[in-house]
Amino acid sequence: DSQNPQYVHGDAALRILEKEKKPTPSIREMIQNDSVAACEAFLGHVVSLASDATASSLHQLRLVLAVPMDASPKYTEKLMQMTQAGIKQQILEKKHRKHHLVVGMISEPAAVCIAHGVT
Predict the structure, then answer these.
(1) Cα(75)–Cα(110) distance, rounded to whole angstroms?
(2) Of the candidates 12, 35, 13, which has an alpha carbon nearest to the alpha carbon of residue 82?
(3) Three-class SS string for the chain?
(4) Which of 76, 11, 15, 89 is nearest to 45 (CA)?
(5) Is this prediction's pTM over 0.70?
């Protein structure tokens, strides 16, 4: 429902991965080490969990990414590109892969405030 957006936060996805006994890598480390395939796969999985949690199709999601306060423009750009690539790998219908799913970026402190309802 576009009138009532649902928020799914990364910490919840990480808890699910821990429960499933899957490795929980640091996105920051993967981006800095240019582990493109691993990062794309991880981000794609996290987005799939968000899709399941909101009972929506992957191509219907619109993402806002949280970045560290000290993130460089290069890091921010790589994060966005890897997230888009990870999502597109999960979307089966080619016509839906063209959509831009990442619609914005905010700082991690702002994301924490939103997650705790302090807005």
Answers:
(1) 18
(2) 35
(3) CCCCCCCCCHHHHHHHHHHCCCCCCCHHHHHHCCCHHHHHHHHHHHHHHHHHHHCCCHHHCCEEEEECCCCCHHHHHHHHHHHHHHHHHHCCCHHHCCCCCEEEEEEHHHHHHHHCCCC
(4) 89
(5) no
What is the rounded radius of gyration, in angstroms, for the C-alpha atoms of the chain? 14
pLDDT digits (tens, 9 = 90+) for 71-111: 899 988 888 888 888 788 777 777 776 667 778 888 888 88
Place of tokens 């821990």: 18
> How many whole angstroms separate alpha carbon 74 and alpha carbon 32?
10
